[in-house]
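Need residues for this backbone.
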């Protein structure tokens, strides 16, 4: 058993000055377009003009950041570059051609924000917001640290070795009670799980969070995280899991809506990625791992 990780001692960023409620995402260069479109939809539809919006950045260029600010419009937007010292905590953690080290930022958000209380909505960069997020900010969380879309999956229970009938969730959209998260020390617990149970984690950070929570989360209506093969009559957040909406491979029925919103961003005229793009990404990732990068 590895020694418990003293993650908080490693974080050296100054605390951000934020309001009690805010929306957060985390992105590296591969997901800048998605984050830009998401911010555009958040500004149009999210009803969060009075909420601080934070993008944690891993290796973004000045041009990338300029594009994100343009997409954010009237949002109270902060772009926060995560230091290499913090990111080194994720060295050796499982990654692949789809998920880079920046996914683990999701597991330490309350610590990075430096807040002791309040509520945050985490959105994966590959989401779009199509209705007000105000109901989430006002949701009664009943003492739970997290709310998310989920349910009982026998396959997930067996793979993660959880007790029968334990709920699991998709972590692409999370509502987090910061005080309760910190009280339960979930950041340290999740990172320890990732390090000690890596071989059993198929969805990496999401699996770690499901193991740490063991079903102790508030179940949200499906409208808050509409993924491929799911449906909601009145969706609020659409999530492009699997093939992304800027690809010819995408089968999500909301792809045309994503492309419609993209027309108002710097990527309006960018062609869709070909069938070969995913294979090339896998090859590049394999080469980088071979050379320890």
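Answer:
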């Amino acid at each position: 058993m590895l020694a418990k990780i003293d993650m908080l001692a490693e974080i050296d960023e100054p605390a951000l000055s934020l309001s009690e409620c805010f929306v957060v995402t985390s992105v590296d260069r591969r997901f800048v377009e998605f984050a830009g479109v998401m911010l555009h939809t958040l500004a149009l539809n999210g009803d969060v003009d009075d909420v601080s919006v934070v993008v944690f950045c891993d290796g973004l260029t000045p041009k990338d950041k300029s594009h994100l600010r343009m997409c954010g419009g009237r949002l109270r937007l902060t772009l926060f570059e995560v230091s290499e010292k913090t990111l080194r905590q994720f060295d050796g953690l499982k990654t692949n051609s789809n998920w880079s080290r920046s996914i683990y930022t999701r597991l330490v958000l309350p610590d990075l924000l430096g807040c002791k209380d309040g509520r945050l909505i985490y959105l994966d960069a590959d989401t779009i917001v199509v209705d007000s997020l105000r109901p989430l900010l006002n949701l009664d969380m009943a003492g739970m640290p997290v709310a998310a879309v989920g349910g009982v999956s026998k396959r997930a229970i067996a793979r993660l070795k959880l007790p029968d009938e334990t709920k699991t969730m998709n972590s692409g959209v999370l509502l987090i009670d910061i005080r309760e998260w910190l009280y339960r020390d979930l950041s340290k617990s999740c990172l320890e799980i990732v390090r000690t149970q890596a071989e059993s984690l198929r969805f990496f950070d999401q699996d770690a969070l499901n193991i740490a929570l063991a079903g102790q989360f508030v179940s949200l209506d499906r409208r808050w995280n509409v993924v491929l093969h799911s449906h909601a009559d009145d969706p609020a957040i659409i999530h492009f899991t699997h093939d992304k909406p800027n690809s010819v491979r995408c089968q999500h029925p909301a792809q045309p809506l994503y492309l419609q919103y993209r027309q108002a961003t710097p990527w309006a005229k960018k062609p869709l990625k070909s069938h070969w793009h995913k294979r090339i990404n896998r090859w590049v990732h394999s080469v980088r791992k071979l050379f320890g990068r």
